Structures are given as structure tokens and as C-alpha cells.
Amino acid sequence: MIIYGTALLALCHLLGIFLGDLLGQALGVKTNVGGVGIAMLLLITARIYMNRKGILPKLTELGVEYWGAMYIPVVVAMAAQQDMVSALRGGPVALLSALAAVAVCAVVISLINRMEHPVASSLAEPVRNDNPLLNEAE
How far is CA 59 from CA 3, 5, 71, in A? Predict the structure, then answer.
């Protein structure tokens, strides 16, 4: 059920936007601060959690993977709508909050990467060809 992957993305997006608004209010900025990034981190965390618990069906995972891949163009489009000049004129709070959001995202992504286990390679034995001309070089 691919639609469940879309529902999971929508839930993470709404929660991320809400948390981004709360972070903006806490920093004294009247805008969303890092809501889309928070939503992406929530989506990654939810996928890993559900995968480890065995409650993520393959079709749902396909929906999550599809929207995860589509998320980058969405983030670029949303960033293009923001006015960076007025944000920088607004004072150092906007710049400091942006740097803090990037730092927190980098730390969380690093932690998530360290939590995942690498996939074992199935190329243990070399493939032999029955063609005698190709086997002469060995």
C-alpha cells in the first residue's frame, strides 16, 4: 500500500512544519525555521524505526522511498520562495538559527547513518564462464 507511505510523509511534513513554527517563535522570528528539514528527519527516523520493528510493508516502503526522492526538489522549490535578503537584514537571529538548524541536521544525519547496519555483499564467489577462450587468461 503505497498510499500509507504518502500518509506517513504527510504526517511527518505537518509535524515538521508545526515544529518549525514553534522553533521560529522560540527564536523570535515570525517564520518557519527548518520545518521541511525537521520533516525529512522525522520521515527518515520513522522509516528506520518501522523497518526495524518489521511493521513497514514493502509497498509502503516504496511509497516512502518515492516521496523521499521527491522531497529534494520540493525543498529547493520552497527555498526559492523565501526572501534571503530580508532574512539577512532582519538581524543575526535569522542567520544564527539557520546555522544552528544546519548543524543539528548534520549531527542527526550522522547519528542515523551510524545506527544503520551495512548490507552484506553477496559477491562471495567469482562468476566462472564456460567459454574456454575467456578462461585462458586466468
Answer: 9, 8, 18
Counted domains in the chain: 1
Task: Give the up-direction half-sphere exposure of residue 44: CA atoms within 13 A in the CB hemisphere.
Answer: 17
Q: Using 50, 70 and 90 to split pLDDT, how confident is the model at 19?
A: very high
Question: What are the pLDDT digits (tens) for 28-78?
Answer: 888 888 888 888 888 888 888 888 888 888 877 777 777 777 776 776 666
Flag whether 130 is in a domain.
no
pTM of the complete model beyond 0.85: no
Task: Name every residue whose Cβ is closer than 8 Å to that of residue 44 and which is 6 or more positions away in sequence.
Answer: 68, 109, 112
Residue 26 to residues 40, 61, 83, Cα–Cα distance (Å): 21, 35, 21
Is there a domain that residue 100 lies in?
A: yes
Round to whole Å and give the CA distance between 46 and 44. Answer: 6
| pLDDT at residue 121 is higher than 60 | no
Buried-exposed string 60-90: b where 16+ CB fall within 10 A, e elsewhere: bbebbeebbeebeeeeeeeeeeeeeeebeee
